Amino acid sequence: MARGENVFQRKDGRYEARYIKGRRADGRPLYGFCYGRTYEEAKGKADRAREEIGQAKKPEAGQRPDMACFCDRWLSANSARLKPSSRAKYRTDIENHIKPFFGEKLPGEILPEEIDGFTQSLLTGKGLSPKTVRSILTLFHSILSYTGKRSGGKLPDMEITYPKSFRKNTRVLDEKEESALVQLLAQEMDACKFGVYLALRTGMRIGEICALRWCDISFEAAAISVCHTALRLPRGNVCQADPDRPSAAAGDDGGVLALSRTELVIGTPKSESSLRLIPLMPDIATLCERFRPEEPKAFLLTGTDRCMDPRKLQRHLKKYLEECGIPEAHFHTLRHTFATRCVEAGFDVKTLSEILGHSNIGITMNLYVHPNLDLKRENMNRLKSLFPL
Question: Is-contact 211 299, C-beta < 8 A?
């Protein structure tokens, strides 16, 4: 089941779509069910049922709208400025978490202790991580602020207590693991191995690697232009990056997924800072010349006009790591590893930040730079000249 979609295929082959049609006295949802021979048919029936319920719940003249109504208004008002991925995430958080808890309440009825109860229900009842809960609460706070400005009456300031999140130790390949992986990638290197090696030597994200076309590589300037990313979105959230880059809804083999609940889309990178130029290392430039096809608009990983699904590239990486005996690593580990090696090589942080596509050097230092014990010891030893015995 796609996250937030509530559509799945039954054992009899039909598709079943679930939607909330009401609430019990204790606030628990009452579900309605729609069926169809295809995913689109079942989902379409459920969407129409939700619209009918929404129309029935629209406030009459003189009747104040509830929080569910303001959630929808907030999403509609902010839709144009949001990236498709952000819009899909906010819609999911609103439908799965905020509406079930606060949807039928009037804005002025919400009490501070209810927000605390909401936080606890997310943490303990649903088992969400503190980081995820903080994200949902930030969204809820934004909706409350929007509601206060448009509800016709000033709402009291709601103090939200955000759960404290602890940063996890980020996985970085040590030098032995990195060397083993590089040796494996060098053996009968193909386009997928080249893509993994490119990520390890440039810090590019998996979606950026999959969306990279040969025309994005300047052989004269020896640089890669990162200007697109491939990502999966729930159907209905597609927003094309430009007319030359159509929706890339494709399966692992490049075939169209007629009944897929999501679409593979070519869009703009994560942020404006992610639009960047990355100079090519000499060995990368040589490999680019080796794999360079005649068609400049072909995707780097496929050599065709069809984009590779990031999930397929992730599976390839998993296979390579297993062959090397490297545990607990994923594609983003390559990005962390690249950043750490750059620091160890003496990169200035500003240069590294721009290569990684960060908006400020604080993100680079806090999230991606992981000096090992030897580097820490080397820096500590520099103090010897200042503090002689």
Answer: yes
Contacts of 252 (CB under 8 A, 6+ apart): 309, 311, 312
CB-neighbour burial class of residue 90 (10 A; exposed 0-12, middle 13-18, buried 19+):
buried
Residue 93 structure tokens: 């958080």
Distance CA 142, CA 346 (A): 41
**Cα-flanking dihedrals φ and ψ of residue 257, to 5°?**
-95, 95
Q: Is 172 exposed, middle or buried (0-12, 13-18, 19+ CB in 10 A)?
A: buried
pLDDT in tens, 127-153: 999 999 999 999 999 999 888 887 665
Q: What are the backbone dihedrals phi and psi of residue 158, each rounded to the nearest 5 degrees, phi first?
A: -100, 115
Give counts: helices (H), strands (E), the chain: 15, 8
CA 179-181-187 angle, 5° bins: 105
Q: Which residue has the tokens 């810090």?
A: 203
Q: How far apart are CA 195 and CA 137, in angstroms?
A: 37
Chain centroid to CA 286: 32
Q: How far, in Å, are 16, 198, 249 from residue 228 at the CA level?
A: 35, 16, 15
Q: List, for residues 53-73, the tens digit of each pLDDT value.
A: 766 555 555 567 889 999 999
For 362-381, b where at least 16 C-beta lie within 10 A, e where not — what string?
Answer: eebeeebbbeeeeeeeeeee
Which amino acid, 14?
A: R
Pairing of strands 15-23, 7-9: antiparallel
**Residue 296: burial class (beta carbons within 10 Å; 0-12, 13-18, 19+):** exposed
- More reliable by pLDDT, 88 or 198: 198
- Residue 251 one-letter amino acid: G
Residue 247 pLDDT > 50: no
Q: How far is CA 249 from CA 8, 17, 122, 204, 284, in A?
A: 19, 22, 33, 22, 29
